[in-house]
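Running this now, will post back.
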Amino acid sequence: MRIAIIHDWLKGMRGGEKCLEVFCELFPQADIFTLLYNKGSVSPTISRLPIKSSFIQHLPLSSKFYRNYLPLFPKAIESFNLKNYDFILSSSHSVAKGAKKADKAFHICYCYTPMRYVWSFFEDYFGGYPLFKKVIVKSVSDNLKKWDLATLDRVDEFVAISDTIKNRIKDIYKRESKVIYPPVDVDSFFMDNSIKKDDFYLSVSALVPYKRVDVIIKGFNSMPDKKIIIVGDGNLQKSLQRQKLSDNIKFLGRVSNNVLLNLYQRAKAFVYMAEEDFGIAPLEAQSTGLPVIAYGKGGVEETIIPLNGNSKNLHPTGIFFREQKPEALIEAINEFETKEREFSPEHIRQNALRFSRQIFKNNIQALITNKLGNIFHAK
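Update: finished.
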């Protein structure tokens, strides 16, 4: 049986690539197809498989500015010759799900989301564009929507990363899906009770518009006696750094996993403002026993047990606030500081263990075995 794994692009090891890594372990005989591949950017588990990139790879400056070729993505993903493959596994948040398959092939799409920037969060991504540019992008977006819906019959089975995305698939695609949560590296992010807690909050996030780190900065500008360290980089980094008014806000940029682990272990709580499809960083934080103060919408509703509104009397792992506003964050921070003793690091980590890499691998293997039979040898 010939197996093809389709992944949107390979430019680093983020959450989607951690899922892809597991797919490569389950299917070491597979071929990988992707729009663009930057060699050296992914793990050996992925790079040891044959990787075939599209014509996007050879376009000018595509390595850095590949998003500028968004209108060509559908044509690029359809250019792959998959007629000799029996099983297609797409790992898709953009166009991977739209790859053309042979009639005999069975296609499972592990869906991180229908394209966020055209379906659900257009204003978050493009709202700040000049009007003339926004009109052009809107036209491209409308064409992508039409293509996206027209390719639905190429997918036999959808698997969603969360109930949030299951509902989005139902609303947009009118298709049912099964939920299998993505893996979190709970072994690398662990508790260490010998490390003394410091008096700072921590935020780990890409510095891009929809993450709303600007709201976190505004909140902590109003609380100069409370410190926060912000980890991550992105196209808003310089503008966000200009917004900080005092030394209680510190930017570290991108850091190594060892440094990040130490920050998780030393922080008093983790602050998260984004509306996410799932949200890996809040679970990494919980893996170290760190409570999370989060905007309570999206994937975090499935991964955090809130102190406020916990009807099942479960051990809390965080606090929710309900508006992406500095005032709501400040209120949540103050609530946390009055109720900090109600959080148990051991129980917080126990919650995160539900999302381990091995559980993800077992669930994916069980699903595919159920659909196709025992067609691979998993370790």
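The chain has 16 helices and 13 strands. More later if anyone needs it.
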